[in-house]
Design goal:
Residues 18-78 form the HTH tetR-type domain. The chain is mostly helical and 201 residues long. The protein contains 10 helices and no strands.
Length: 201
């Protein structure tokens, strides 16, 4: 084999790596969303992809490594264009847009709900990721509510930090109810929250 051929072969192998890792993460997301982190095994994930366990471990040496990749994947899919809409049109528009778009991705919502419950115990794999995620969301939402106050969308008397925490609690709660019973109206419920905080502007 020539040097050029050998280099091309290596480049081809490297090029396949991101695609294979993405396939593994998607398969793991499917398994974890139905069986949870404890119930889902690396062997089952490998079986879904029709690859050997050794191949999977080559990309993700431990189950914890794979869990972290799955959480990042779910969070990135979940967010979308939220920040841009929040800045341009306000938190109400951004939140309700994301709620509407997420109707098409119940598996991701279920994944975050299942893993969020499992990872609630300190020291559990993924716990710190959720701690950091909620801390980041509270800060981002607080800043967005402050921006809404600055442009007159919500009253200045409202505490933006409290609003951020309230929104996250409401959103997670009504989302879980919707996963259990699709008849629950998430849009109307969250819309009512914004009706309340925007009152008396």
């Amino acid at each position: 084999m020539s040097v050029t051929s050998a280099t091309s072969a290596k480049r081809g192998a490297y090029a396949k790596t991101p695609a294979r890792k993405a396939q593994i993460v998607e398969a793991a997301a499917s398994v974890f969303s139905t069986r949870g982190y404890n119930g889902g095994s690396l062997r089952e994930i490998a079986s879904q992809l029709d690859v050997g366990l050794t191949s999977l471990v080559h990309h993700f040496p431990s189950k914890t490594d794979l869990l972290e990749a799955v959480l990042v994947y779910a969070d990135e899919k979940y967010i979308g264009e939220f920040d841009m809409i929040a800045h341009d049109s306000g938190m109400r528009a951004a939140v309700l847009d994301l709620v509407e778009r997420n109707f098409g991705h119940p598996e991701l919502l279920r994944l975050l709900a299942v893993l969020g419950t499992e990872c609630s115990s300190p020291g559990y794999p993924g716990n710190q990721w959720f701690v950091d995620r909620y801390s980041r969301l509270r800060e981002e939402y607080r800043a967005r509510f402050e921006h809404d106050q600055a442009v007159g969308r919500i009253p200045a008397r409202r505490d933006p930090a409290v609003l951020a925490t309230m929104l996250i609690g409401l959103w997670d709660g009504v989302q879980l109810q919707w996963l259990i019973d699709p008849g629950v109206d998430m849009v109307a419920t969250i819309g009512a929250f914004f009706d309340e905080i925007e009152a008396s502007r």
